[in-house]
Write a structure and sequence with these properties.
Elements (H helix, E strand, L loop, with lengths): L2 E10 L19 E10 L2 E7 L10 E4 L3 E5 L1 E3 L11 H8 L4 H6 L4 H9 L3 H17 L2 E7 L6 H17 L3 E9 L10 H18 L5 E6 L6 H13 L3 E6 L7 H7 L4 E4 L5 H7 L5 E4 L1 H7 L6 H6 L5 E2 L13 H12 L3 H8 L1 H5 L18 E6 L5 H4 L6 E6 L2 E2 L1
Parallel strand pairs: 1-4, 1-5, 6-7, 7-8, 8-9, 9-10, 10-11, 11-12, 12-13
Antiparallel strand pairs: 1-2, 2-3, 5-14, 14-15, 15-16
The chain binds N-(iminomethyl)-L-glutamic acid and zinc ion.
């Protein structure tokens, strides 16, 4: 039986089904309908319109959204939420003056998380990760991409990907899995890095493909991590198994990761804190979505991705949390949106577009998620009473999300 939401102060992000992403000046527009209704049936958005055009209909439930906004749930296209424990100690080390790179160089960082994860059972890892997922769903996230990458052995990488699969089976939200075995070189491969790349290609990838555990391939393409040549080798091998590239590039240095991503039709290139004009030029006329991770810049105190230069050059932009224990121990998309506005000078319209329709594109789900469109999933949220949608990024730190619907069901 259908559910009807009535008296919606403003229904945000109404789009035609054919739209998959918005770029450049298009990002400044957020199509809305004031004083609206929305009808949910069979888990999908069945209809919406002005209250004055509401017709007689038999429904199961009527929700009065007087004074409240309704919008599609956030799509978080870049997370690492399947991890063990935390890295609170390194947080304090950084407060005391060490840099992220210095901590990694002395065996902390990703290797620290990998050690913890290797010692954690699959059940415990599931429990820890499910808790994080529960939290972000309540904050309005209705689809999430999750990467492996804190295992760094065949067994531990498979453990993470199986946990992701179990989360996808047990939770109603859409979950996409990414294989990120190339997140860091385990220390035992320090003197023979090619052997680790070979392990990824010859052992991990075939097993992951055989169990159908990932849709995307990711590599941390960065100085001190994986070179452009190593990244290319891994992407080429992964593509033979049908995995689509979504890669970590330009976090600390611009070394050619964007050019590589575009060459191999990456679905997205993520981080982008350090961008050259050539990097921006390369992204033009490509199908690759640039993805910025504002909370990572906030937490590490590193530059923010130059959103203005990216959008003003006509490109699209998506934003995501990067939820992980080292650089972003937060999965709050509302904070990401506020930070994008406050620190990256994105307008509320641009930030909401970046976290919905463009973020859905960066996860390959824009045909079902990311906008209020008839026939798309009824993954929606109702805000608390707010004066306007600009209040969402403005009142940073307040939880303004009242109710979340996934597949038309209230969470
Ligand atoms: N930069 C690479 N990977 C993660 C952080 C890894 C970590 O510090 O644990 C990121 O996207 O920020
Ligand atoms: Zn990341």
């Amino acid at each position: 039986m259908p559910t009807l939401i009535t008296n919606i102060k403003e229904l945000l992000q109404i789009r035609d089904g054919s739209l998959s992403r918005v770029s450049g000046t298009e990002m400044k527009t957020l199509p809305t309908l004031k004083n609206a209704f929305l009808l949910i049936d069979d888990g999908l958005i069945k209809d919406f319109g002005k209250m004055e055009d509401l017709y007689e209909i038999q429904v199961n439930e009527v929700i009065n959204a007087q004074g409240k906004m309704v919008l599609p749930t956030w799509c978080d296209s870049h997370t690492h939420i399947v991890y063990a424990g935390n890295r609170e100690g390194e947080f304090v080390d950084r407060i005391n003056g060490l840099t992220y790179e210095e901590i990694a160089a002395k065996g902390g960082g990703i290797l620290n998380s990998a050690k913890k994860l290797q010692q954690t059972s699959e059940d415990d890892l599931y429990k820890q990760s499910a808790k994080r997922l529960d939290e972000v769903i309540k904050l309005g996230t209705g689809a999430v991409e999750i990467k492996s990458g804190y295992g760094l052995t065949t067994e531990a990488e498979l453990k993470i990907l199986r946990v992701i699969k179990k989360l996808a089976d047990n939770y109603p939200i859409t979950i996409k899995a990414t294989f990120l075995g190339a997140h860091a070189f385990p220390s035992e491969f320090n003197n023979n890095k090619e052997d680790y790349v070979d392990l990824i290609i010859n052992t991990m990838l075939p097993k992951i493909a055989a169990e159908n555990l990932a849709e995307f391939i990711d590599v941390f393409c960065e100085k001190g991590y994986f070179s452009v040549a190593e990244t290319e080798k891994i992407i080429v091998a992964a593509k033979t198994y049908g995995l689509i590239p979504k890669i970590h590039v330009n976090q600390f240095n611009s070394i050619g990761g964007i050019q590589l991503g575009v060459k191999y039709n990456a679905l997205s290139v993520d981080h982008l804190e350090v961008m050259t004009t050539e990097d921006i030029e390369t992204l033009k006329n490509s199908t690759t979505m640039p993805v910025a991770l504002p909370s990572c810049s906030y937490f590490l105190g590193i530059p923010y991705a130059p959103a203005r230069a990216i959008i003003d050059s006509g490109l699209p932009l998506a934003i995501a949390t990067d939820y992980n224990p080292g650089s972003t121990p937060s999965g709050n998309m509302n904070f990401v949106i506020s930070t994008a506005c406050i620190k990256m000078k994105m307008t509320p319209e641009e930030a909401i577009n970046a976290a919905t329709i463009n973020a859905a594109y960066a996860m390959n789900i824009s045909d079902t998620h990311g906008s209020i469109t008839k026939g798309k999933k009824a993954n929606l949220m109702i805000t608390k009473e707010i004066p306007s949608y600009g209040f969402l990024p403005y009142a940073f730190g307040s939880n303004l999300i009242d109710t979340v619907f996934i597949d038309g069901k209230q969470i």
